[in-house]
Specification:
Strand content: 15-25%
CATH topology: TIM Barrel
Radius of gyration: 19 Å
Number of strands: 14
Bound molecules: 2-Phenylacrylic acid
CATH superfamily: Aldolase class I
């Protein structure tokens, strides 16, 4: 039986365990330049015992930004800071992918270049809020991207993928989940287009697949992952027939031999219906490559998922925020630190780099 603590690989890429770090927005980047904070170097270094670190969602353009203080990957200065991060992770024997992100409509005019409206597949406003300089505010009305705008955005994803090479990443994850731009094209609650990028499942998948194909010109397929949330409703999302939509997507990703599929199976604290579980399970069965499961996994569920071959690896989010040495703690059956939600987004070292390692907690207990 396969264990969570066993190594695994995708092509020529080896991982020391199956305990992966999920992408986690932490909002500590410099807001004017979108350069990751210096303290992010220590944060990622501390977590290098993960089989794979997937970075926080990182915008591929200024248009792709929707929350204050999220980092970017659209210029050399940002890539240079990311290089400092990948260097320390590699020195510690870890592996790290960057998550390429465009928020689409989940943004605010105050965050967009020149105070413009955000873009989306269609002009459908989300019933949700985002973090701005003036606090938590309703997102702004989006504009539908033109076909030229779509082509430019695909080029931005490709440029982001190129900068990731310069920055020393092991690969990239395309963020197609959680109601951001790619998901806004995939699902029919948001995609109302009547051109080649809307309507049929083939058309709605086109934007994602053109991004995958553009990124494939930069990275070998085993170093490209795709994250999806077929049944998620976060960010005011939905689809009339997720099984049909995402079955097509998974078929296409199989054809392209993408390195891994990463599904948000459920959101922490949200109920999942039987239909949603069945959809997710059907999609996983269809998928032929490496599968990363995410969504409210604890140690027992994670062990079971890997042993039963439901998943090749598990991406842990909140547990990795509070436990930099999560693999060691899980392997030893040690107690876990509890994450502090008040310090998830924004601020400095508190709740970011100051969670104790097991060795430190022992020291404290002994003292
Ligand atoms: C929480 C807050 C801001 C962004 C996601 C990138 O859900 C996010 C995100 C999550 O994928």
């Amino acid at each position: 039986m396969t264990s969570l603590f066993e190594k695994c690989s995708i092509g020529d890429l080896d991982f020391k365990n199956r305990i992966f770090m999920a992408p986690l927005t932490r909002s500590r980047a410099d807001d004017a330049t979108d350069i990751p904070a210096d303290i992010a170097i220590e944060y990622y270094k501390q977590r290098a015992s993960a089989g794979l670190i997937i970075t926080e969602a990182t915008q591929i353009s200024q248009r792709g930004k929707g929350y204050i203080k999220t980092p970017g990957i659209y210029n050399d200065k940002q890539a240079a800071k990311w290089k400092e991060i990948t260097d320390v992770v590699h020195e510690e024997g870890g592996k790290i992918f960057l998550q390429l992100w465009h928020v689409g409509r989940i943004s605010h005019t105050s965050i967009q270049p020149d105070g413009k409206n955000p873009v989306s597949s269609s002009a459908v406003k989300a019933d949700t809020k985002t973090f701005t300089q003036d606090g938590y505010q309703d997102v702004s009305e989006p504009e539908a991207l033109s076909v030229d705008g779509i082509k430019q955005t695909i080029a931005d994803f490709k440029k982001g993928a190129e900068l990731c090479k310069k920055a020393g990443f092991d690969g990239v994850e395309i963020h197609g989940a959680n109601g951001y731009l790619i998901d806004q094209f995939l699902r029919d609650k948001t995609n109302k287009r009547d051109d080649a990028y809307g309507g049929s499942v083939e058309n709605r998948a086109r934007f994602l697949l053109e991004i995958v194909d553009a990124v494939k010109e930069v990275w070998p397929t085993n170093r490209i992952g795709v994250r999806l949330s077929p049944t998620g409703s976060f960010n005011d999302m939905g689809d009339s027939d997720p099984l049909t939509m995402f079955s097509h997507v998974v078929d296409q990703l199989n054809d392209r031999k993408v390195g891994y599929l990463h599904l948000v199976e459920r959101f922490p604290g949200m109920d999942v219906g039987n239909d949603d579980l069945a959809t997710i399970n059907t999609l996983i069965e269809k998928w032929q490559g490496f599968y990363i499961a995410n969504g409210d996994y604890d140690i027992l569920k994670a062990k079971d998922a890997v042993q039963s071959k439901h998943a090749d690896a598990i991406a842990f989010g909140r547990p990795f925020i509070a436990n930099p040495d999560l693999p060691e703690r899980l392997e030893k059956g040690a107690e876990l630190n509890e994450p502090d939600e008040d310090t998830f987004y924004g601020g400095g070292a508190e709740g970011y780099t100051d969670y104790p390692f097991l060795s430190e907690s022992k020291k404290t207990e002994a003292a």
